[in-house]
Amino acid sequence: MLPEERRQRIVESLGESGLVRVDDLVPELGVSAETIRRDLIALEDRGELTRVYGGATRNPGAREPGQGRRDVANPLAKRAIARLAASLVRPGQTLIFDVGTTVLELARALPRDLAGQALTNSGYVAMELARRPSLHVHLAGGEVRADDLACSGPETEEFLGGFFADIAFLCAGGVHPQAGITDFYPREIAVRRHMLQRSTERYVLADSSKLGRVALRRVCEVSGVSAVITDAEAPGEVVDSLRARGVRVLVAPLDAVVPVAVDSASAGADPLPMELPVPHARAGS
C-alpha cells in the first residue's frame, strides 16, 4: 500500500469514528507503529487531524470529502486551470463535463457565444453551460448526490453510452504516478470510466493539492488520459514523475493570462497551451 493511500485510509477511519488508535491501525494497515506515527504527523501538518496520546482525533476545522471542502479550496488555482482548459475548446465540438468545482470553473470560463454540444452529469455545471445560447446542453439523469448535484448510476452510464465526444474534462480526488487517477465515490467512478471511453481527448483537471495524492479507488492509469492540467504550485517531483511515465502535464500560471504556443510537431494547427516547467524553487514543497 502506498503511503498516501494508507493516509487516506486513516482519514476515512477517522471520519467514521472521530478517533483512531495507533494500536488498531497497525494490524489493519500492516505497517509498524512508527510508520503510523509518521503518517499521523504528516496528516496533522496538512490539517486533517489532531494527534493525541496513542492516536488522533478529528480536526474540528477539517471536513470530509463531499461536505463542501472542495468549494473553498484553492480557488485561484482552479480558475487558472479552468482558463487553460477553456483554451483547448473549439467551436462546434461535443464536450463532456464531469462534476466538481474545477470543472464548474471551466464552464464559467467558456465564451458566451460558444457553439456545440455539451454533456454533463452535474446540475451545477449544466446551469452554467445553459447560459450559452448556442451551446446545446444535455444533462444526464440518475441518482443525485446533494452537495454536488452529481448524477450517477446505471441511468447516467446508459445516457453517456449514446454519445461520442471530442473532449472530456474530468475531475479527480488524486493523481499519482503509480496509483493513477483516483476518486472517492465508486458510483461516480463508474460514470467517469464511461466518459473516458466515449471521448477522443481526455483531460483531468487537478489543482496542486491533488497531485501525489491517492483517493479511495482507481479510475484509470495515468496513461489513460491525454493530459493532466494543474497549476504552478504543483509539486515538482510529482510532475517530473508523471512526465517520466509519458504523461503530458499542462501547468497553468497563477495569473490572468494563459500563454499559448504552437507545437513544432503541428505547425499551422490550432495553438496549444504551453507546457510550462514547474519552478525549481517549488520542487519538493
Secondary structure layout:
Layout: H1 3-17, E1 19-21, H2 22-29, H3 33-45, E2 49-52, E3 55-58, H4 75-86, E4 94-97, H5 101-109, E5 116-120, H6 123-129, E6 135-139, E7 143-145, E8 150-152, H7 154-160, E9 165-170, E10 174-176, E11 180-183, H8 186-197, E12 199-205, E13 217-220, E14 227-231, H9 236-244, E15 249-252, E16 260-261, E17 272-273
Parallel strand pairs: 4-5, 4-9, 5-6, 9-12, 12-14, 14-15
Antiparallel strand pairs: 1-3, 2-3, 7-8, 10-11, 11-13, 16-17
What does this molecule look like?
Helix content is 32%, strand content 24%. The protein is built from nine helices and 17 strands. It has a seven-stranded parallel sheet, with helices on both faces. α6 (123-129) links the parallel β5 (116-120) and β6. α4 packs across α5 and α7 runs parallel beside α8. It is globular and about 60 Å long. The two termini are 23 Å apart. Residues 61-72 and 256-285 have low confidence and may be disordered.
How many individual helices?
9
Helix fraction by DSSP (H/I, runs of at least 4): 25-40%
Class derived from helix and strand content: alpha/beta
What sort of overall outline do the alpha carbons produce when their principal axes are compared?
globular
Strand content: 15-25%
Compute the separation of the termini in Å. Answer: 23 Å
Question: How many individual β-strands?
Answer: 17
The SSE string, one letter per element, is HEHHEEHEHEHEEEHEEEHEEEHEEE
Instruction: Give the low-pLDDT segments.
Output: 61-72, 256-285
State the assembly state of the protein chains.
single chain
Characterize the largest beta sheet: strand count, sense, and whether it forms a barrel.
7 strands, parallel
CA radius of gyration is 19 Å
**Mean pLDDT across every amino acid position:** 83
Give the strand order of the largest sheet, numbering strands 1, 2, ... along the chain: 6-5-4-9-12-14-15
